[in-house]
Design goal:
Blueprint (H helix, E strand, L loop, with lengths): L7 H17 L7 E5 L2 E8 L3 H10 L8 E5 L2 E10 L2 E8 L6 H11 L23 E2 L5
Length: 141
């Protein structure tokens, strides 16, 4: 008898979660969506850029403090996980802080209580060096 965790039926909730995303947000930016028999109860969505993380965060009503910033081979990795149809969906993107500094600054300012503020920052000033990998960005107001 086959292992039930290795069947398509085990992946059914994740497939339904992906379909629920499409149904609820057909106009949203696309993503490279992954589900696996090794983790059948979850979905991973690689987004095409840091700006799309913020767009999806707002669409899925995820609080800014739930967004984590870490490092992947020297580039910032921004991510959050949201429950969609009861399934954890990890939304994430890797970006270049020199190409997308407004997005990183905007995420930090949201946490500091400035919901519509965004301005460019010089990524070479070390502003992101003190961020703890895998933890939400901590900003003092």
């Amino acid at each position: 008898m086959p292992d039930p965790t290795q069947t398509m039926r085990a992946q059914q909730p994740a497939i339904f979660a992906m379909a629920a995303l499409v149904e609820a947000h057909p106009q949203m930016p696309g993503a490279y969506m992954v589900l696996s028999q090794h983790e059948p109860e979850a979905v991973s969505a690689l987004l095409p850029g840091l700006a799309t993380v913020e767009v999806w965060r707002e669409a899925l009503c995820v609080a800014p403090e739930q967004v984590a910033l870490s490092d992947l081979n020297g580039d910032p990795l921004v991510e959050f996980t949201a429950l969609v149809a009861g399934v954890p969906v990890r939304m994430w993107a890797v970006g270049d802080p020199l190409a997308e500094p407004v997005v990183l600054c905007h995420a930090a300012e949201l946490r500091a209580g400035h919901p519509h503020a965004a301005h460019e920052v010089d990524a070479s000033d070390g502003a992101f060096a003190a961020l703890a990998p895998g933890r939400p960005v901590q900003v003092s107001a």
